[in-house]
Batch of 4 targets.
Target 1
Amino acid sequence: MGHTRLGTIPKSRKWSEVVAELARFGSDVAAEQRTLQAGIATIARRAIEAAGGALKGAADDIGLRYTFYLLTQITLSAREEDWVEALRKNGIDLSGSSSVFDLTVELQAAVDRRISASSHPSDVSEMAQSAAGEAIAALASSEAVTMFGSGRDELQRAIRSLSTKKGFSDLGQVFFGRFIARLLNFYLSRVTASQLGAGEFRQVGEISSFNQALQAHCEQSARIVRDFCGEWYSKTEFIQGIDLENASAFVAVALKKLRSELQRQEAEA
């Protein structure tokens, strides 16, 4: 209750084109890899065009903006000697045995508290929180477990590796890639479900393969913002410090770059 929902797929010519492209993709699931990549690129482009309004609106979502801001603060906090206190200032509380999973849960809770103070939760916010948690887990999980065990100290070292220019570049690419994939799949899942059985997707496994291919394509496409993330992070923190305002402005520009990249890549797939 109280969520701001993105709604159902509009009945428009653009979405009809997406449905048609999905049908073609489903019929080519056994085709060679290059053909499948081209199909995913086409679907992603058409979905971005059809859901253009939703993407533009996402840049204004407080949940998305605050989630990205918290990613910057979590990584910067890992540089501090008293990491625990630095995190607490951002509403994140870790115990001595906290894991990567505990950190992602705390991040999501901190975002929820921030949103509830001024507005309602949204689908975009939930996507952003999930994308942030997945990005941290994907890049820090292996380093947070050492031969000496795992816990808050090991976790801090793992997150500190993401606080460098290169580390935050990697984090930004995975975060934005996972977020865009979730946003597109929010709409496309309704189409793929309608295609199951009666349409071209004959088995649930084919939909799963499609979702994995879409996520991989979005993460690869997010390379367009990879260096941009690291350079902005390093330069902004050094010159003026990162706050919610300049982090929000960055998110808006990053989404524009990624949207343009997804629209451009079809011809190269």
Note: Residues 69 and 244 are 6 Å apart (CA to CA).
Target 2
Amino acid sequence: MSAGGPHLDPEGCGSNAAAYVLGALSDDESSAFRSHLESCAVCREEVAALNVVAAALPAAAPQLTAPSELKRRVMAAVHEEAARVSARPSRAPTRPAFPALRLRPALAGLTLAAVVVALAVIALAPGGSGVRVIRADVLSSRASALLRLSGGHAELSITGLAQSPPGRVYEVWLKGSGRPQPTDVLFTVTSAGDATVGVPGSLSGVSEVLVTSERRGGSRVPTRAPVIVAHLS
């Protein structure tokens, strides 16, 4: 904190950082907190740390479709907390130099982790974003793959897959009632074994999305056993 800035109790600093990072403050509260950040190193460090956490959370765990009942329970808890906060009598601020900022009612009383979980449940629950996530079977125990289905589109997210040998690539196939059909999607993975691959075309009637290792240029029929199998049904 700079010498010319307002004096704040160090134990009180950072208490509004989570709400600020999540965008849970009103416009006036956000403006006041940004002004406070200019003179408070404690809160700047807290905001910087929380920004890193918030940015990393979506990739920290596989995204799964949450049941509608879980979404209902989370939202019921949010509304119940909001009603309790609204019923509490207001109290005069105890820190005139920088009064404690109030969260919006729907988020009051929730910790940063609880808010993030609630938002994730809403986004992934049926009726939310409409995203379906399928964990695929992978030949290598050190690799993993997720197939995300949304709005008629599909995307494979792969981690830890071995790089293709020289002269070979990975190819994506769609399997219905007959033999696998080529999609003409060829790809390689990064040095860490990662890749994000769009699956073209309609998945209507498709029961499996497959990935095989093929010669560079691809093949019209699979020549090796699949290294990834995502079961749609």
Note: Residues 17-124 form one domain.
Target 3
Amino acid sequence: MESWEGPIDTGEVPEDGSSFDVVVVGGGPSGSAAAAYNAMNGCKVLLIEKEVWPRDKICGDAVGGKSLSHVKELGVKKMVEETPHFMVDSIVFGSANVHTVKVLLPQAEFEKKMPGYPLPRKQSD
């Protein structure tokens, strides 16, 4: 079993009457990032998520290249790179008449290792 396939320890449930500087509802990529950035800035944060992590979803199966600076800043880029993953090397455009055009990403993106990663949502959780 890969390390991302088991339940994640989410910590203790807060006591009644606890107060927080920030409450984030939804622990997907955006909510988790918002909670993490606020915690990194010294806020007492409560992140509320209805599902048990990791959970698989059919959406959100990629970390775009422009987001990788945040992934690094949040301290999880190395962790993602240590798990099985692919790097985006192109974009394929398709039309209703089944014609496709494949556009390769610039080589500079690969040299900076910033092209993005398609990976299962439960892995990014």
Note: The helical segments are 29-40, 68-73, 77-81, 107-111, 121-124.
Target 4
Amino acid sequence: MHTKQLLSELFWNETTVTSLPKFILSLGIAAVLGYLLGQAYVRFGHSLSNRRAFARNFLLLTVTTTLIITIVQSSLTRSLGFVGVMSVARFRAAIKEPEELLFLFLAIGVGLGVGAGQALLTIVALIVILGLMAIRSLVRRTPDQPNLFLTVSSPAPGKLSAAQILEVLSASGAKASLKRFDETPDLLEASFLVDLKDVDVLEKFNRRLRELSKEVKISCLDDRGLIA
């Protein structure tokens, strides 16, 4: 009897039953908003990382934040416990772009708003923010906007310079701008925004660059796609 009572209080008490529909609705709203935020990041973001892979985290992050806030908002003890747990949590993946951090904060903010029972305000705020992002993207868009993120790694010996890589890109018929540059005594790594018209240009660049250094490593990330 005692066990049955404990199970009843744990899974089927009056407070839980009453709040369950609202809780499920909150999770659903958070999931939709997290998904929309991920799609906006893929469409309007400018990070050099793989935005599609990174954006998949937003839905779970938003829903998880909603769950946590829903649980702790009515209890000071739970809130303090949550702060203690988060103080020892460590993130092993480094955030390389400020934009990634901003979108993570936005995803957490959406989860906080929905979990705190402010779904309408959260939806309105997110619509306004996404609208501003769309307007900024349209204003900044140019006819020659690059379509690929290109990263070139050149180890020693035979290490290439950024000037040599840009020269080969230009000679291959590509337009490029240097976005990130890291160099050590043993390695050079440079990231570019490039405008490649077709696959032939990429193959020409690859061939000419390997003529200068056979150890070079080339990596491309899709932004607007490449025509075959």
Note: The first strand starts at residue 148 and ends at 155.
